[in-house]
Amino acid sequence: MYFTKADQELTIDFFHHGMLTLTGPEDRILILLPWQTQGSVGDLLQIALRRMKAMPLPYGPVSDPRAAVRYALHSGATAIVGIPVQVLAMARHKEGHLLRNKIKYVLLCTDYVPQAICRALEAAWGCSVFQHYGMTEMGLGGGVQCRALRGYHLREADLFFEIVDPESGEVLPEGETGEVVFTTLTREGMPLIRYRTGDVSSFLPGKCPCGTVLRSLALIKNRVDGFIQFGGGKITLPDLDEKLFDFDFILDYKAYVRKNGEQSELQLVLKTVDGSKADLSAVIKSVLILPALQDSERHRLILQVTEEPDFTAFTGGTAKRTITVIQ
After folding, report:
1. 139-156: pLDDT as tens digits
2. What is the end-to-end Cα distance of the chain in Å, rounded?
3. Residue 226's pLDDT is what?
4. Rounded to 5 degrees, what are φ and ψ at 264?
5. pLDDT, tens digit, for every residue of 169-205?
6. Is 20 in a helix, a strand, or coil?
7. Cβ count near 125 (within 10 Å)
8. CB neighbour class for 227 (10 Å; exposed up to 12, middle 13-18, buried from 19)
9. What per-residue confidence (pLDDT) applies to 81?
10. Is 80 exceeded by the pLDDT of residue 313?
11. Fewest CB within 10 angstroms: 92, 107, 125, 248, which?
C-alpha cells in the first residue's frame, strides 16, 4: 500500500481525536507497536499524541514481558497501546502486578481481541480496556471504542463502511451480520472501492450512550473464512480464545486441525506462565464443551504444553493469530 503525506495526515488526525476520547494531556502512553520506521503505526500514533499534549513512550512489540513491565514502571506510563497477547503476557508476568492502579487505560489493536483478555487486564491492573479496529488498507485506523464500550465508532469522514452478504455482495440492513467492506473517500495514494476486509460484523442499531452521530460497528469476532469444519460442527478462533484465555496460566496458544478422511484432530499447543502449575484437565474439560467436540468417538483432542521462561508469542510483531488446517 502507498500513502501520500496527506493520507498520513488524515490518519494522524483520526488517531488524535480517537485517543482524546480515552486519554488526556496528563497521560504517558506506552506504545507497544512498531514505531521506528517513518509512517509506521507507532510513528503516526506518537505524532498524534504530541498534538494532544500527551507524552508518547515508544517501545515496540513485546518479546520480554519483564523488560516491558519495568520500562512501564520506570517511565511512569499511565496508558498502554498494544497487541492483545503481548499485553496479557505483561499482566500475567510475576512482576505484572506492580502496574496495578498505575495503568489507567489499555487500547488493544492489530488483532481480534478476546473478551477473556479484556477481563484479565481489567482484573490485573484495575484499568479500562478499549479496542481499536483497523488495517493497513484503511490507512491503519478504522474505528475505536468510546467509554461506553458499545462498539467501534467509525472513521466516517474518510471511509464509507457497508455490511454485505459474503456470497452475493448484497448490502445488508442495520443489525444483520455480514462481511465488512469499505470505500476510501479522501485517499490520494491508493483509493479503494468496496474493499472486502474478510471480517464479520454488523451495524449496531440505535444511538451510542456517548451521544455521537457516528455509527457503531459491532466488535469484530470472526472472519468469513474463520469457521473451521470439525466433524459435524465448526470451530472458530474466538470459540477457543474465550475458553483458553480465562485460565490465568495461559499466555498464548496455537491451534492445529488435522483431517484424515472422516476423522478430525484438534491439537492445542499452549504457552504458559513460567513456573505455573497448568491444570490441563480443567483446560480439556473447558474445550470439550464446544459442540464440535462432542462426538468424541470420531474426533480427538490432543493437548501439548510448552513452558518458555522467555516469552515469545506464536505470532510476532503485528501478525494476526489463526487456526492452522493440515490436510
Report:
1. 999 999 999 999 999 999
2. 33
3. 85
4. -120, 150
5. 999 999 999 999 999 999 999 999 999 999 999 999 9
6. helix
7. 24
8. middle
9. 98
10. no
11. 248
pLDDT exceeds 60 at position 71: yes
pLDDT given at position 291: 82
Query: What's the pTM value of the predicted model, to 2 decimals?
Result: 0.92
Cell numbers of 272, please?
A: 504458559
Q: How many CB atoms lie within 10 A of CB 216?
A: 23
Give me the domains of the chain, ranges plus CATH numbers: 5-145 (3.40.50.980), 152-223 (2.30.38.10), 228-326 (3.30.300.30)
Q: Say if CB 266 and CB 257 are below 8 A apart.
A: yes
Residues 253, 301 contacting (CB under 8 angstroms): no
Q: Count Cα neighbours of 5 within 13 Å in the Cβ-side half-sphere.
A: 0
Between CA 291 and CA 260 the distance in angstroms is 20
| CA separation for the pair 99, 121 (Å, rounded) | 11
* pLDDT tens for each residue of 102-117: 999 999 998 889 999 9
Q: Which amino acid is at 40?
A: S
- Give residue-wise pLDDT tens across range 231-255: 677 889 999 999 999 999 999 998 8
> How far are the Cα atoms of 71, 138, 158, 318, 326 from residue 7, in angstroms, in the given order?
32, 10, 10, 21, 40
The pair phi, psi for residue 242, each rounded to 5°, is: -70, -25
Would you state the pLDDT for residue 259? Answer: 78
Q: In terms of Cα–Cα distance, which of 42, 84, 91, 83 is closest to 65? A: 91
Task: Specify whether the CB–CB gap between 148 and 210 falls below 8 A.
Answer: yes
Buried/exposed code over 134-155 (b: 16+ C-beta within 10 A; e: otherwise): bbebbbbbbbbbbeeebbbbbb
Residue 184 is classified by DSSP as: E
Among 37, 40, 79, 31, smallest CA distance to 59 is for 31
